[in-house]
Amino acid sequence: MDVKKILSSQLNIDGVSQDEIYAMITETANSDLGDFSLPCFRFAKALKKSPVQIAEQLKESFGGCQIVKEVRAVNGYLNFFVDNTVLAYSVLAEARQENFGASEVGKGKTVCIDYSSINIAKPFHIGHLGTTAIGGSLYKLLKKQGYDVVGINHLGDWGTQFGKLIVAYDLWGDKEKIEQGGVEALQEIYVKFHREEETNPELTEQARRWFAKIEQGDERALQLFGWFKDITLKEVNKIYKRLNVTFDSYAGESFYNDKMQPVLDELESKGLVKVSDGAKIVDLEEYGMSPCLLVKADGATLYATRDLAAAYYRKNTYDFYKSLYVVAYQQNLHFKQVFKVLELLGNDWAKDCIHVAYGMVSLAEGSMSTRKGNVVWLSKVLDSAVEKAKQIIHDKNPALKDKDDVAEKIGVGAVIFSALQNARIKDITFSLDKVLNFEGETCPYLQYTYARTNSVLNKAGNAINARIAPDFDSLQSDESKQLVKLINKYPSVIADAAEKYEPSILSKYLIDLAQAYNKFYIGHRILDEELSRQIPRLYATDAVNKIIKDGLALLGIDVPEQM
RNA sequence: GUGCCUGUAGCUCAGCAGGAUAGAGCAACGGCCUUCUAAGCCGUGGGUCAGGGGUUCGAAUCCCUUCAGGCACGCCA
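^ Those are the sequences you sent over. The predicted structure of the assembly is below.
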């Protein structure tokens, strides 16, 4: 229930719209002062009265409603005290409904999300965790908001590195070894190629020729290329499954090979193309940007050219309302350029293309480099996290059922959560120790709280459905009030997270909710109470149970029923 | 050099379409399990919100500026 809306609808101030009043009502930091507050200072000039007078007047004219217990005018603030019995009654009823938190604001609109976008034959390392986890969560958040969502894995499946890989395979590759070793085995020969290449430029030349053969459709070249692709996808799909991430399209770079020329033609016909040092560019100087490179001096297309073709393809195919690119902030300029070129081409939908940038992942030990083979494989990080979870289960709850399943959920959840708990723009120095810390503001803490609510609900049996009038007066403590308020916020938190493309808003909220519940749990016996007082507490427990499960699912994280 | 991003407790971060006394977690120290899961809860200490100026009744939040760190800036993606 939107308390601010109820309050603002009861307030009338000359020359100020209801929406403006709504926006000005804040939650009060100090609960002694009330639950919600309207500062009246800004109205002083227009009304030619002091804020103190205005607050007094508003207090007098406030019609009153069930939810408000008391209104006070204090030092120019109009403070509202909410009646928690009434609030708890309606909030807990809402929270028990099936689709609590869902919305239909996106109904009939399609959002494309380009995320994860891995490279073929390259390791899935912790650097890919950010885009995969953020994109995967946005996918679910936007669906929850009613949008049709298209998840696109823009595969990096084009470029001279595939020529290199073929050369490396012919020289040092072993079919069986690679079938078994997968991407890691491919990486080995790739890294070797780069070492050898430094002293033997002939290799570089050979690689170039092989890549040209792929382009020309040479049978053997395509066959090997397809094989590398299969190996990679097979392996990566296992990780996606663990991360609860899905895609609707794997149209990658190679897919756009035959779709760039029409875009280039259009650019030419609109007079946007310039030739500079033999390369074709779009000059963006008047917009304060360096030029967007379209075609190299040797005639080859570039990254930006493919992104332009992809943008058109997505618009034509999906008629998107928004098209998101979950890509690290290193590429800020690139996307600014591409979007500007789309705009210069006269596409009003250019404004709907949004670069959802996120921070860098670095290692405490130094930078990652695929070529040097200095990477932290995500599958290994997931495995260590699961291993750690197993150890802790062994220490704390050796009698637990389905230990392996629970450990998987806890371990993988911890890793995903580490990528989603902070604002996405923040850089991350990856530390396994930190990911493996299971105490405090962590995913295991949320899962533990969920398991705790499960335990209470199971022990309560059918009491929650007893035909006895619940006594909501039993939720008057500060802890209860705090908890009810947070439960009430869930739908707006999802809306906010979806609107800002920021899953961390949800992560932070879930931590707050779990903290509030744990305080409530410690401070209030639930099952010892008589039924009429027990039921509201079970409602609250049930709401927390559902929200944590649903909220974590929106982050791509599973919950164990017990732990 | 230019543009963008970041700077809040020892560490990691919330708070930033301005509102009342700046909040969590980790780490440290001290408490709470014969009672619903102690992966929990309570308490203690810890702050020039990077520095300076400005706007405002009011600034961590907006503007200017300086400093520090990161990223990007033509033929990689």
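Residues 157 and 226 of chain A are 10 Å apart (CA to CA). Residues 175-199 of chain A form the longest helix (25 residues).

Shout if you want it in another format.
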